[in-house]
Amino acid sequence: MVHPTGLKALLAVVWIVLGVCPLSCAKENDTAELDWEAQRDGMVDMLVSRWDLKDERVIAAMRNTPRHLFVPEEVRAYAYLDTPLPIGHEQTISAPSIVALMTELLKPEPEHIVLEVGTGSGYQAAVLAPLVKHVYTIEIVEALANSARNILRRLGYENVSVRAGDGYRGWPSEAPFDSIIVTCAPNRIPEPLVEQLREGGRMVIPVGEEKGPQELYVLTKERGEIVKRSVLPVIFVPMRGEIQQQKSQ
Ligand code: SAH
Questions:
Q1: pTM of the model
Q2: How far is the CA of 169 from the centre of ligand 1 (A)?
Q3: Main-chain phi, psi angles of 176, to 5 degrees
Q4: What is the pLDDT, as a whole number, of residue 248?
Q5: pLDDT of residue 211
Q6: I need a surface site. Which of 17, 115, 125, 165 has the fewest CB within 10 A?
Q7: Exposed, middle or buried, 215 (CB in 10 Å: 0-12/13-18/19+)?
Q8: Alpha-carbon span 136 to 181, nearest angstrom
Q9: Nearest 5 degrees, angle CA 38-CA 44-CA 45?
């Protein structure tokens, strides 16, 4: 006979595979027993082989970052499945594979000053934090910026600064940045972000329409010119704020 808890877990996985998030079946008691570290290791092993991750520092950061503490309690049981999860305010934390890939594409170095647009849960910033000197991250939903700031502080990430606001205009007082990572999709590359990238710097950014195709790009600034390389098709939440208002004018 299948144990009821086992059956529940199996159903949860099936529902996730079908694209439906089974919020109601993730009870706190169910998750309390789970061995988070072992789950995280298992997930990272899978990511390394499936996505051919090569940067050992990035792999170590993925192993050490407690994703389950960055997601709401209702979905905590699924924190180490390679899937996006809801974080409230109609936003999602990206799938771990996309976080690992984008982090690797950024080529983080210990002396780098990095800008993130779209703090969300704070998880991507936490993955980056041990790999660089400082992460500046901007989130347009004030409640998300506040909760990300709180969890990052509680977990002891001292080199991450979180600001509530529209990331379209970047963070001019801290520019230029060695790299910029954008985790929401504008319909075109925001010019202020290009300006705030240092010569030789890299930007990893999804670009596309809200319901249309989106593509992940790596931009490099070489002798003042932007060189754009397309990586793969992706699905991100849209960049909101000024860029959308400009579009409707
Ligand atoms: N990096 C996040 C994923 C966030 S999803 C994580 O690790 O959890 C994308 C986020 O971008 C959402 O929280 C959304 O509110 C935010 N966002 C959308 N438009 C924005 C803008 N113009 N400036 C800053 N943040 C924005």
A1: 0.87
A2: 14
A3: -85, 155
A4: 53
A5: 82
A6: 17
A7: middle
A8: 10
A9: 90
**190 CB under 6 A from ligand 1?**
no
Element (H, E) at 128: helix 123-128
Count how many residues are written for the chain: 249
Partnered with residue 221 across adjacent β-strands are 226
Task: Compute the radius of gyration of the chain from its Cα atoms.
Answer: 18
User: Residue 120 is encoded by which pair of tokens?
Assistant: 């969300």
Residue with tokens 């503490």: 69
pLDDT value at residue 1? 40
Q: Closest ligand 1 atom, CA of 138?
A: 24
pLDDT of residue 224: 83
Greatest CA separation found in the chain? 67
Q: What are the angstrom distances between the C-alpha of 140 and each of 78, 116, 145, 199, 241?
A: 26, 12, 8, 27, 8
Cα-based distances in Å from 97 to 47, 50, 51, 84, 120: 6, 9, 7, 10, 17
Among 162, 239, 178, CA closest to 207: 239
- Provide the pLDDT for residue 247: 60
Report the separation in Å between the CA atom of 184 and the middle of ligand 1, taken as the mean of its atom positions: 5
d(CA 113, CA 120): 19
Split the chain (249 residues) into runs of 10 and give each run's mean pLDDT.
47 43 48 77 96 95 97 96 96 96 98 98 98 98 98 98 98 98 97 97 96 94 93 96 79
